[in-house]
């Protein structure tokens, strides 16, 4: 039976079966990449530790014990304690919650602003395209961390403001990526067919064009979560992000630098946590990029 002779119910079932088949194909390509699988396992461990932090952390991350300050890793304190006697392992586990929230909220802000603005600019063209792209060029003229510092200077230091600042610094990436994809797809035949049957511009853009643009945007989001976590850690290191006593990895790294010679573990373990988390997101992002590429075999 040809696709044109199907009933509505048969077409719906056909689309569902085809979608399931495409998902299986994506997963097959993804799992062939061992680095991507290793990143996925590490990412699952990161999300699990963030979700179960109150349950699996051995101590209260804010509880001070000055009698055991600067304690080296031992059976009682697996990763040692900081300058105030707080358990570093517990603070790293609870810090995973903060890093996950930072990554998701920052990317969410960038996505919510950048994707619609880039899509509308590309579809409408003319002065709206020029205006949006010149604004993005201005934002791109600043290094992302410098732009985030400028935003925090205006809003004030703090975790929420750090997430907004990092999100704004990522907006140009989404806007330019979306614009390029929409410019490509808006000249395709299926868009012309939608116009011929009287579809509105909004329906054409968000019902026909944008679904075809989502694969690279999803991949970019995965990579940007890693960038957001790294940028937030840098802001925390500078004292512009999460404020004490919040167990944020960048702030922990900053506090520990004073004790690098006497107790290097205070900075070493939060630094390792940042490195492994960012590496896991990047490996998963690279794996998704290859799996979603139709040219891959």
As a percent range, the share of helical residues equals over 70%
CATH architecture field: Orthogonal Bundle
Class based on secondary structure composition and strand pairing: mainly alpha
What is the count of β-strands? 0
CATH class: Mainly Alpha
Gross morphology: elongated
Average pLDDT for all residues: 86
Q: Count the helices. How many?
A: 11
In sequence order, what are the helices and strands, one letter per element? HHHHHHHHHHH
Portion of residues in beta strands equals under 5%
Major β-sheet profile? none
Any idea of the CATH topology?
Answer: MetI-like fold
Radius of gyration: 23 Å
Distance N terminus to C terminus?
A: 29 Å
Which blocks of ≥5 consecutive residues have pLDDT under 50?
Answer: 1-19
The tally of structural domains comes to 1
